[in-house]
Amino acid sequence: MRKTILCVEDERQTLDSNRRALEDAGYAVLTAENLAQARAALSQQAPEAIVLDIMLPDGLGLDLLKELRETGSKIPVLLLTALSAPSDVARGLRAGANDYLSKPFAYEVLLARVETMLRNAEQMPDRVTRGALSLDVLSLRALLNGKRLSLTQKEFALLMLLIQNEDRALTAAYIYETVWQQPYVPTDRALASNLYRLRKKLEGSEYAIVNVRGVGYRFEKA
Q: Any idea what the Cα angle at residue 171 is, between residues 173 and 194, rounded to 5°?
């Protein structure tokens, strides 16, 4: 069964070229020239991925991206834009984009980026289990020894990030910018507070979050 890609682009020639390239690669393609059309398309069908322009006639593609992420949508999104400054790239990724491609670009690169996004999405399991700990990725529910573990959205996202990088030390800046999607401020106690509560809640799970001196934090078997 062919995977469906939604292309959102206000430049008609670029939209048609992107559609042809994706269709030639075997994808079914939905198109939209503005945010209103994109929202209408999404209300009718959930595509496997979105190629999203940032500058659109009726607003920013980033607004649509944030709407998707706030509703819990995990649809992979590739931002496609003429904005290529490092700050623009960082802004897009922090808003929840999976990847970022600056114009002009080669269609071979566009197709490779879409393929990679889809492959990574398929590799994300619906449920993650570590010892007595079980996380349902779709419902954002956690169980410990078969009983509901009360986690806030931030605690769940923080725990998922640590589990995905099990036995690997992550810096505080990387964790904060990934989970909170904003620049890290060392004086902000949000990360430390969430880690403190999460450690308490993980007691009895056979796993722990440890401090790695001079680096950051690591999720490992206790």
A: 70
